[in-house]
Amino acid sequence: MPTVLRMPEVAANATEAVLSEWLVAEGAEFGALDAIATVETEKAVVDVEAEAAGVVLKTLVAPGSQVEVGSPIAVLGSPGEAVEDLDAVLARLGVEVATESVVPERREVPDPPPVDPESGAPVTSGPSVPPVPLTSATPTPPRRQNGRVFASPLARRIARDSGLALEELVGTGPRGRILRRDVEAALETRPAAQEAPPVLAPSAAGEVPHSRLRRAIANRLTESKQTAPHFYVRATVRADALVAMRAEINGGDVKVSLNDLVVKAVGAAHRAVPEMNVVWTPDAVRTFDTVDVAVAVATERGLLTPVVRDVNALTVGAVSSRIRDLAERARGGKLKQDELEGGTISVTNLGMYGVEEFAAIINPPHAAILAVGAVRDEPVVEDGAVVPGKLMTVTLSVDHRPVDGVVAARWLAALKELLEHPARLLA
Question: Residue 223's closest CA among 50, 362, 60?
Fold first, then answer.
């Protein structure tokens, strides 16, 4: 029996998502838990899996379309099922297939008669005014409901990618709906409207339209800086033992980075100072039993922070393997939404670029973020003598709402102790 597949809410509180790709073509069968389609959110690419085996009878949304959560995207059937009258099935299921080819009926609507400016009476004599044909090409204001402009998914995507505001466009579709042709017409006329050449202003080298991920990053970090009162604590770590232990571990089959060891140490510090393993909510300070640590990963699309679950239960080698897997899939756009959610602290490391120290913005709703600088060779005083040493600066940005300064200081002291005696991370 045919059923409707609707756009799932792949991210908490999401109202829309982009259907990136159909993985099963129309008429093709699929098995239970097979991926039918790929959906893109602001931060991840998620596969929509089938609950049971079946066949795709009809796809209702083209790849690249932005679709509201809950909207129909396909009609599915049982394995081997075929439908002769698909339109009747769609009508029975209450599904309307939007199309850009719908053209309203052509009507001839005469203009109202001219009015005498002094008396206000209609002028019955004089030259006649020919009727103006109203066709689908006649622009009408876009239909709105609850402040939303009605437009086709394709028109929305083209307008978004081109930096056009839908509110500024006029629609030629049914009831003023904005269609693809309306956006393309606006793009054709835009250069002419912007030809006022600046005389003194320097010319721009170019513009890169904001991606969904870049907008999400900007919004979240702006919100964090505006709503979370940041304070910062900093420590310089003797990293000689840390570097030596990493070299010893990498002499075998397991390969780890300094950042892997730092993430493991962050998990142990959270166990030592559980008051840091919290997040702020409007009603309470929420505590956690497990330690989940987010790791910043730079990708071509922007910065992502996948979460390593239950760090304390993992060996150093397992932490390294998990981070490497998350980073590879982050750069390939294959992370699942739940792999980007959760955790109470993030770790961001710019040491590989020679950055000695920096302060980072907290990734909400986390309570803190640890910024890790490069290991550098410097003279240090040891037992009254100046000797060569390896130093590393770490800076902890903390949300002052759930965490007090003394708690952050105790946590940083615990982290410093672990990094300077890294053998404890192997226990």
Answer: 362
Under 8 Å CB-to-CB from 190, ≥6 apart: which residues? 164
pTM of the complete model beyond 0.70 = no
- Annotated catalytic residue, options 210, 230, 400, 421: 400
Domains of the chain in start order, with CATH, are 3-93 (2.40.50.100), 137-192 (4.10.320.10), 229-426 (3.30.559.10)
Contact 109, 131 (CB under 8 A): yes
pLDDT of amino acid 256: 96
CA dihedral 364, 370, 374, 375 (to 10 degrees): -160
Q: What are the contacts of 38-42 at 24+ separation with CB within 8 A?
A: 39/7, 39/8, 39/10, 40/212, 40/333, 41/10, 41/11, 41/14, 41/17, 41/212, 41/337, 42/11, 42/14, 42/212, 42/213, 42/215, 42/216
Q: What tokens appear for 371 in the block?
A: 């910024």
DSSP assignment of 367-405 equals: SEEEEE---EEEEEEETTEEEEEEEEEEEEEEETTT--H
**Worst-scoring range by mean pLDDT, 76-85, 300-309, 314-323?**
76-85
Is 400 noted as a catalytic residue in this protein? Answer: yes
What the block records as the tokens of 351 is 């040491």
How far apart are the C-alpha atoms of 18 and 334, rounded to whole Å? 15
Cα gap 348→418, rounded to integer Å: 18
- The mean pLDDT of the chain is 83
Between CA 417 and CA 427 the distance in angstroms is 15
Strand blocks (E) in 252-384: 278-280, 285-287, 293-295, 297-299, 302-304, 307-308, 345-349, 368-372, 376-382
Q: Kind of pairing, strands 297-299 and 72-77?
A: unpaired
| DSSP letter (8 states) at residue 265 | H
Length of the chain: 427
Rounded CA separation 261/306 (Å): 17
53-111: per-residue pLDDT in tens?
Answer: 999 998 998 888 888 888 899 999 999 888 878 788 888 887 765 544 333 333 333 44
> Alpha-carbon distance 148 to 377, whole Å?
59
β-pairing, 345-349 vs 293-295, is parallel
**DSSP codes of every residue in 7-37:** ----STT--EEEEEEESS-TT-EE-TT-EEE
